[in-house]
Amino acid sequence: MNKLLNRPLKAFTLYALLVLACSIPVYYFIVDYIWRSELDEYNEIVKSRIESGLNKLSLHKDEWEKTIALWNKTQPGTKIEKSLLRVSPPDSIYTIMRGKQSASEEDLERYRGLSSYIKVQGELYHLTIEINVEEAHETVFAIAAVTVLFFIILLAGFVILNRRIATQIWKPFHSTLDRLKSFDLNSQNNINLEKSDIQEFEQLNQALYQLIAKNISVFRQQKEFTENASHELQTPLAVLKSKIDLLMQNESLTESQSELIASLNMPLSRVSRINKNLLLLAKIENQQFAEDELINMTELVNQNLEFLGEHLIAKNNTVEMEIDEDSSVTANKSLVEIMLVNLLLNAIRHSQENGTIRIKLTDKDLIISNTGNNPLNKDTLFKRFITSSSNTPSSGLGLAIVKEIAYRYNWQVEYQFVNYFHQFSIHFRPQD
Amino acid sequence: MKILIIEDEKELAQNISAYLSDENYLCEFAETFQQALDKIEVYNYDCILLDLMLPGGDGLKILEELKKHDKQDGVIIISAKDSLNDKIAGLQIGADDYLAKPFHLSELAARIYSVIRRKQFGNSNIIKLHELQIDLLAKTILVNNEPVILTKKEFDLLLLFIGNKNRVISKSALAEHLSGDIADMLDNHDFVYAHIKNMKKKLVDAGYRNYLKTIYGTGYKWEA
């Protein structure tokens, strides 16, 4: 994954490289052009100086010829020749590559020349002035070297600036991110984001505040609804239950009436149970079980096994136990007991005739398994109101409660189907 | 025996009263916090059934008021709240028992019976019924002065029947009494039948005449 800030850096670097690369030939042409025009100007100046200088001399014809010859010998780069033409043609400017007199022929030098005609004392003379120009390849090399140097400076600047901007400007962003990560909807505490003077981050924070506040309120309403609804249902259920108990006392009931009344009890107690479980879930979510204590799991498991013993053997199940001495956890005792009973009942309810129920308890985990034919759906198993089998109706909340309790204590709940065993495990120390 | 039912749900109060109305019990009602306060100030009751959420105030305040005036009335809290904290708070202030709604009337009757017995007989809490003699504190049973050993569950069942003499108790009420909240999680209530059968056999073997009648296979009745 790329960092957001590194993307523009890459683009900027590439762009800078492109611009600087293009600038090399442009610089070269501009420098060369300026140079040439400066030299042309200089040649013109030299020419007019020579012309006026020579015109000021008043010499005889002999002397004149000697002077010209002397001039040609002593003034390198200029040459004066007597012209045979009568009218002076226009000046011409040229560039020529020529070997140095002293060096080998390959070492060519570039010269800028002016070929002109001057009139000295009525005679037309052909004047050529040449001046050495820096070679093209040397100029290009120097410009390229300077450009590369600047590019490196630019790049280093980009990286340093990038790093500094990343740590400073992104600080509020990272702080918001950290707080979002640690936010728990269940805790119902409003989130507190760090203030930022950057508009975008402040907008982000405001949007987050709104989103979270809305979520919290919806979540709270939902939980309050569950809790209130369950609460309100308790009393009518109590009335209903008491009515049935009263009705049973009627002496004149026939057998079929009596059976009908008795059959009302089963669904009624199921509704009561669902209701109680919903209330329990709402309470766990609302963290109304605050006090944790050190619980001796070995003792707790043994107690509940004793209590459920008759049900364990009712289906002619074999019970295999492997319980470590002195296993303990720190949690709310009634919650742990609810979790344990729910798991045990789950195994009892869904075990087969003549099957096996295994209970394993160590310091690290509790594993309860029972024989079965087909694996259960892992995805929906711990969801509310999802019963795995239709022939044994339950409240559909037992495993949801197990999961909620485990979540509260950061224990890991796991379901596996191993060798025709439904295996439910609670890992008390998942990080080990 | 005078019982005060502090409950704002009229119908539930009347059902309780109807269930308890034999020659031994006389029920009075209070529907609001103020009514309840007025009644407990003037009269004494053998047992008070107290709902915690009342119009006009918290039921726990009534409990505090009772303790302040050093009244000896037995109190059973009947509440829709069933969290452990509520139970602990109620019992710490001085309630004798706590029953969460919804409950079976037979369960309530058994608890009223046991609260009244405890209040009235102090340390020697012995129930005598024909040739049966039960020591509630020692949890021992004598039939014709011969000890009979019952399991804890059989003993619990016996007390439920004694507290509901001449009333029909449904199988599901028995199952809930024996296994508490988990009763309806179990596939069937046959285990109740097994315990009753064992209890009956032990008592009859020791010479107790059979007073326990089965009502159409849907419930049981202890006729005495």
From TrEMBL, chain A:
Transmembrane regions listed in the UniProt entry: 12-30, 140-161
UniProt keyword annotations, A-Z: Kinase, Membrane, Phosphoprotein, Transferase, Transmembrane, Transmembrane helix
Catalytic activity, as annotated: ATP + protein L-histidine = ADP + protein N-phospho-L-histidine
Cross-referenced CDD domains: HisKA (cd00082)
Enzyme Commission number, as recorded: 2.7.13.3
SMART domains: HATPase_c, HisKA
EC top class named in words: transferase
A GO molecular-function descriptor: kinase activity
The UniProt record lists the keyword Mitochondrion: no
Signal peptide: none
SUPFAM superfamilies in the record: ATPase domain of HSP90 chaperone/DNA topoisomerase II/histidine kinase (SSF55874), Homodimeric domain of signal transducing histidine kinase (SSF47384)
Domain spans labelled Histidine kinase: 228-416
Keyword Acetylation set for record: no
Name this protein carries in UniProt: histidine kinase
Organism this protein belongs to: Dyadobacter subterraneus
Automatic annotation (TrEMBL), chain B:
UniProt DNA-binding residue ranges: 124-224
Ranges of residues in domain OmpR/PhoB-type: 124-224
Residues covered by the Response regulatory domain: 2-116
Sorted UniProt keywords: DNA-binding, Phosphoprotein, Transcription, Transcription regulation, Two-component regulatory system
Record keyword Aminoacyl-tRNA synthetase present: no
4-aspartylphosphate modification, residue list: D51
PANTHER family linked to this entry: REGULATOR OF RPOS
Name under which the protein is recorded: Response regulator transcription factor
Organism from which the protein derives: Dyadobacter subterraneus
Origin organism lineage: Bacteria, Pseudomonadati, Bacteroidota, Cytophagia, Cytophagales
